[in-house]
Amino acid sequence: MNIEVKAYQEGDRQDVLSEFLSGLKDKNDIKKIRKLIRMLQLQGRELGSPASKFLGDGVYELRDLSGGFRIYYTFIDNTLTVILIVGNKATQKTDIERAKARRNKLLKEGIHDYTT
Q1: 98 three-class SS
Q2: Band (115; pLDDT cuts 50, 70, 90)
Q3: d(Cα 90, Cα 101) in Å, to the nearest integer?
Q4: I need a labelling partner for 94 at 20 to 30 A (CA). Which of 16, 20, 47, 100 fits?
Q5: Ramachandran region of residue 48, left (φ > 0), alpha (ψ -120 to 50) or beta?
Q6: Is residue 2 pLDDT above 90, yes or no?
Q7: Could you tell me the domains of the chain?
Q8: What is the pLDDT of residue 111?
Q9: Contact 60, 53 (CB under 8 A)
Q10: How far is the C-alpha of 5 from the C-alpha of 7, rounded, in Å?
Q11: Are 39 and 60 in contact (CB under 8 A)?
């Protein structure tokens, strides 16, 4: 199984993944996040605990247990996943709320930008 993973983007802004990664200084942190995304690409919906957790409202949390990073994502179908937010344990509550709002926005406005 190989799932396509795309990052949420609004307008002309940088996508959420690129924006978060550009703010990191430690190359090991970047590697951790890329490893999590690769796991998601390879395992898709089969990825389970402790790496992934369903949060409700179609939003999942991908977790790096050693560094506290969190990637919030949703499945569009069986072949596409959209990363909604990238954050850390400290911003978890706010990030979950924002991820759910972004998912709702995707559903309301359509997902054409992510499926082309």
Answers
A1: helix
A2: very low
A3: 19
A4: 47
A5: beta
A6: no
A7: 4-111 (3.30.2310.20)
A8: 66
A9: yes
A10: 7
A11: no
Greatest Cα-to-Cα distance within the chain, rounded to the nearest angstrom = 37
Q: Phi/psi class of residue 56: alpha, beta or left (left: φ > 0; alpha: ψ in -120 to 50)? A: left
The CA distance from 63 to 41, in Å, is 14
Token pair belonging to 40? 């998601």
Residue matched to tokens 């072949």? 79
Q: Are 86 and 17 in contact, with CB atoms under 8 Å apart?
A: yes
Q: pLDDT by residue (tens digit) across 28-59?
A: 999 999 999 999 999 999 998 999 999 999 99
- Residue 11: per-residue pLDDT: 82
Look up residue 76 and give its DSSP letter.
S
CA 10/CA 1 separation, integer angstroms: 29
Identify whether the C-beta of residue 64 lies closer than 8 Å to the C-beta of residue 53: no
Report yes or no: 103 and 95 within 8 Å, Cβ to Cβ: no
Q: How many C-beta atoms lie closer than 10 Å to residue 67's C-beta?
A: 15
pLDDT at 4 over 50: yes
The structure's pTM equals 0.89
